[in-house]
Design goal:
This protein is mostly helical and about 400 residues long. It has 18 helices and no strands.
Length: about 400
Amino acid sequence: NAAGVAASNDKMLKVEKNNENRSHKTNRLFPTPNKPDPMPKNLAFLFTKITPEQMMYMWNVLTAIFVTQCSMVLLYCAALATFPDHWWTCTLMFGIPFAYIAIQNIYIDHDVMHGATFPPHEWQRFLTHCFADFFSLPWEEFVLEHNRHHASTVDLLEQGEFGWDPEEFHYALQQWAGPFAQNWYKYLLTVPWIPVIHFFGLNDTGSLFALEWWCHFPDEGAGGKCNKEFWSKWVPRRIKHNAFVMSLWACIWLLGTWPLGRPISEGWRFMFTVSFFARCGFSAAWMFITNFTHSLPWNNFLAQDPGRTWPVLHDVMALVLGGKHRWNEMLFHDVHHAFPNAVGTLSQRGRFHGWQAVHDAAAEVLHRGLWKPNGDEETQMQKTQRKRSLMMKSTRVNK
């Protein structure tokens, strides 16, 4: 029931709407997801709650990625110590795969938070994104701010429609001037800054984003007083998480000293190199998840059924992201936003059911309509979705 969505006492975690259940920003009714009922057999797997075994598997993958990252840093140090005259060769052989692993890190983080939020072991919550930056949000707040994103942005192209969205600055850079075709020259001033701000930590796992979130959360107490849980709950979590993160980077600094024959004052050279490639990977992943999927040009492109007209592009981008089950997240991010809990992430479903089955099921859900009609005028995103679903349906029929 849309009228009862997010009945929370915490204003940072609730849907903001008026007494008529309409957005303060657009005056649109909060939409109700059109979950298939009765549920067809070919779609049931997409809406089935993931099993404890699947949860354990995803946390094991996340842990394995952290172990792999640590091992790669150690091997990079050993390579530089063994071949000191081949810095570029050693660095590129380390850096490119390390950036690629960082992309996988974000995708498994995203998969885990939508269905397997709580780690089997307490210590695993420290491993989720510690290579992303020198300090960042603890896992619990990472999940909270992502929930805030879903609560406020239901339609991909109406960001912050039902409250503040922590990602709004990103969306402003790519949509502030109106339609791209008529205003492309204006976007030349802002769009190039998107990878820059990602690189320096203005994304969900970065330091600048953490500062932004901490300026908003937790809410102040009654009468403007300090939140009663600020010192007892949130500050200890932030200290523990970032103590672990900074300890990890301190170890990387030390690896760049005596093992490489350098004084301790020069450890930054090794540390910054590791951080550079990590930031490249994390930034790339977040640009795909945050910027591409929520942009009008991308969704207009999807409406042309690029799977049929641009198959090579699909294959290449799937390879960049780690497989076609990851690419499904880019193709059907609107399905993810319609059912963030019931479906979770498309890449998560692809891990257990295969990318093709998930792709076809998501296309069918899209064709049925993501939202129940409520009398409101269709948004730009809904019009694009309808056009796209018809194109995809006709393609499947003609095969």
